[in-house]
């Protein structure tokens, strides 16, 4: 039946309903998720979650190698190949992944060792995402703990692409086993006025208190826009006097936007004891940095039945961050999730969270997350990057020159021979000249869109 058979007001109503449902269902599209098995020649799926890993693509160079199995951590994806970037391929190499919708993403990169005695056993290198340095691997990363075999950051991606670069520091060749780009809610982990596209949150620590084994969100039954977070297990803070407790039944106010924390995260906890009423957890951090701290609670202790029975203060590096915390009162009931967030400046190399009982003799905590707040670098004008790449290809410049990723950022690793200037008005970098010796370049055209002019011998 055609719409012409209906009165005009009915046709208008039907049109509005069609528009509404079309918009509604399009907004329910699955979040963007890309996983790459570096070095793989075909798509693979991994046990036990049947996770799909795309075959290797979008790399600027490098060679394929076998990944080690004996040194792999408990959480490294069970993949058999990796991509190695020898220094002969240039001081920086990247994955330039196009057609990534603009949005907020959890980007996770796993490292591994090469199963070849001719390669350095533990390479040390820097990692940048969209031109911002997010990690520098330190000696011992392959044997330290699960949290050092990958780097993870929450970033806003634009320009319909993601640039993940690996910068050699003269200590072995970067070796990458997998890359994950997982969309999260645009408002996820909003830590205050500085949150948003100008900031990156680099994961420092994420622990599930009382849990016996490491878990991902997917293991917890989470999904959607949570970013498949990794939660390390923590059965003690080190005092050996806490009690791990396990709650049964439904936990209220979980799996909610924008952070979508899974319910199972709140079904375990650590509780202090008479022997050690205070709970204290200390972690290593980089000095002179700001950190976003997220603390998770749910009252699952059967000995606590009403508000007022357990009240405690929370101190971070000795300063009171939250006073008179009553989980039942603040969350709205028993077995109800409560998340507290604060930002702290740390001068030293450690961050300590302490829970001090005020009413009752014991404190409780379910999980801890800590992120380093990194100011996102402004990028170089896209047209100038393209012009330099075209010049590189036209002149067949050697791979050892590098010239991958952004020529001006991260500031610690600019391209060899590129003279960069910053446009304060447009908050972008531009190329003010090339000073590479062979061939010889000079007199670059003015920015931002006219391209690069080169005079060479």
TrEMBL record:
Membrane topology: Single-pass membrane protein
InterPro entries for the chain: Malectin-like_Carb-bd_dom
Domain Malectin-like as annotated: residue spans: 36-373
Cellular component annotations (GO), alphabetically ordered: membrane
Keywords: Signal
Broad class of where this protein is predominantly found: membrane
Residues making up the signal peptide according to the UniProt record: 1-29
UniProt-annotated location(s): Membrane
Protein name (Swiss-Prot/TrEMBL): Malectin-like domain-containing protein
Species this chain originates from: Carnegiea gigantea
């Amino acid at each position: 039946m055609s719409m012409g058979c209906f009165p005009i007001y009915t046709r208008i109503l039907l049109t509005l309903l069609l528009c509404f449902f079309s918009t509604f269902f399009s907004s329910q599209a699955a979040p963007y998720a890309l996983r790459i098995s570096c070095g793989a020649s075909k798509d693979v799926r991994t046990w036990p979650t049947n996770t799909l890993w795309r075959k290797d693509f979008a790399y600027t160079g490098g060679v394929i190698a076998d990944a080690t199995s004996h040194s792999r951590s408990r959480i490294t994806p069970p993949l058999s190949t990796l991509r190695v970037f020898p220094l002969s391929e240039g001081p920086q190499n990247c994955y330039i992944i196009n057609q990534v919708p603009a949005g907020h993403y959890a980007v996770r990169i796993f490292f591994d060792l090469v199963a070849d005695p001719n390669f350095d056993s533990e390479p040390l290198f820097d990692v940048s995402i969209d031109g911002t340095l997010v990690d520098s691997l330190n000696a011992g990363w392959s044997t330290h703990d699960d949290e050092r075999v990958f780097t993870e950051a929450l970033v806003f991606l634009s320009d319909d692409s993601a640039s993940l670069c690996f910068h050699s520091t003269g200590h072995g060749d970067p070796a990458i086993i997998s890359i994950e780009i997982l969309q999260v809610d645009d408002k996820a982990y909003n830590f205050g006025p500085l949150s948003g596209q100008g900031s990156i949150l680099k994961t420092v620590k994420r622990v599930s208190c009382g849990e016996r084994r490491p878990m991902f969100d997917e293991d917890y039954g989470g999904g959607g826009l949570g970013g498949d977070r990794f939660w390390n297990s923590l059965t003690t803070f080190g005092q050996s006097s806490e009690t791990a407790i396990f709650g049964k039944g439904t936990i209220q106010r979980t799996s909610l936007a924008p952070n979508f924390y899974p319910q199972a995260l709140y079904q375990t906890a650590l509780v202090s004891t008479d022997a050690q009423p205070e709970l204290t957890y200390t972690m290593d951090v980089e000095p002179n940095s700001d950190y976003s701290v997220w603390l998770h609670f749910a009252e699952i202790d059967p000995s606590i039945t009403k508000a007022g029975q357990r009240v405690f203060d929370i101190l971070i590096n000795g300063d009171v961050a939250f006073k008179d915390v009553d989980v039942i009162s603040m969350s709205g009931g028993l077995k109800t999730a409560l998340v507290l967030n604060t930002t702290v400046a740390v001068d030293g190399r450690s961050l300590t969270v302490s829970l001090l009982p005020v009413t009752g003799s014991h404190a409780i905590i379910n999980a801890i997350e800590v992120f380093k707040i990194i100011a996102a670098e402004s990028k170089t004008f896209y047209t100038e990057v393209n012009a330099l790449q075209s010049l590189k290809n036209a002149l067949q410049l050697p791979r050892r020159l590098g010239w991958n990723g952004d020529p001006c950022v991260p500031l610690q690793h600019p391209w060899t021979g590129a003279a960069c200037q910053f446009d304060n008005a447009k908050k972008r970098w531009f190329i003010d000249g090339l000073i590479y010796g062979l061939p010889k370049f000079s007199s670059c055209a003015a920015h931002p869109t006219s391209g690069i002019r080169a005079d060479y011998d």
